[in-house]
Amino acid sequence: MENNCDLIFRLFVEKINKSERKGLSDLIQINQGDETDAFWKELGGKPANFQLVNHVPDGFIPAKSILYKVDLGQEFIELPQG
Questions:
Q1: What whole-number distance in Å separates Cα of residue 1 and Cα of residue 7?
Q2: Nearest one of 3, 13, 30 to 77, comparing CA atoms
Q3: What is the C-alpha separation between 17 and 73, in angstroms, rounded?
């Protein structure tokens, strides 16, 4: 099951795919730590000293979420006012 950030990101990317790429692009989601060899190859290879580091403290409680309506403008993302 996707968390809220994954879902929001996916909806945003699908909107860009539909409106800007005319549905011709592919969305591939790879979670940190699950990267494939093909993923690293596209980036020029996996760094020799690569390590996953947890930067979030164990007792972290995220701030309350705020939902914004985002529109894709001619050249940028718009946050409608009002």
A1: 10
A2: 13
A3: 14
The predicted structure's pLDDT at residue 52: 82
The letter for the amino acid at 40 is W
This prediction's pTM? 0.43
Two structure tokens written together for 15: 């909107």
Q: Is 82 helix (H, G, I), strand (E, B) or coil?
A: coil
Distances (CA, A) of 1 to 5, 22, 29: 12, 28, 13
Q: Rounded to 5 degrees, what angle do the CA atoms 10, 12, 15 make?
A: 110
By CB neighbour count within 10 A (0-12 exposed, 13-18 middle, 19+ buried), where does 31 fall? exposed
40 and 50 in contact (C-beta within 8 Å)? no
